[in-house]
Amino acid sequence: MAQTYRLDIITPERQFYSGMVEELVVDSPRGKMGVLAGHVPMVAAVSIGTIDIRDSEGRRLQCFTSDGFMEIRPGEVVVMAQTVEWPEEIDERRATEARVKAEEHLRQKHSIHEYQIASASLARAMARLRVRRSVNID
Question: Which end of the chain is more exposed for a tag (fewer CB within 10 A), N or C?
């Protein structure tokens, strides 16, 4: 049996996940970052994308996350993000509409600030669609 640690994922609205896990993989500004039991303590940024969890029973779970950060401490990890959603919570039609709207904004000539906002909106929409479609939910 692999070593486990406590994982808590928190948003401003709710305690999204709390339980013992074997592994956590998050998107970070430098790419995917994995956390196993015994990881060195640190604080790291979490980027728009996915959180992949292997729980203490070996099940694999995946969810969408907006940006945030995580704190890795001995025996526990806390992830704090603005939004985290399970695949079944994602409205595929709404995410597709957001993707189309963001792509249109990117095609238009806007300020750098508006471009960055549209880029972040597109990244969120694409990540939601990736998570939603990866589980093949009707």
Answer: C
User: CATH class for domain 5-85?
Assistant: mainly beta
Each domain of the chain, given as residue ranges in start order, spans 5-85, 90-134
CATH of domain 90-134: 1.20.5
The span from the CA of 22 to the CA of 37, in Å, is: 7
Residue whose token pair is 């009707």: 138
- Mean pLDDT over 46-66 rounds to 94
Are the C-beta atoms of residues 131 and 62 closer than 8 Å to each other? yes
User: In 3D, which of 78, 88, 84 has the Cα closest to residue 65?
Assistant: 84
| pLDDT tens, residue by residue, 22-49 | 999 999 999 999 999 999 999 999 999 9
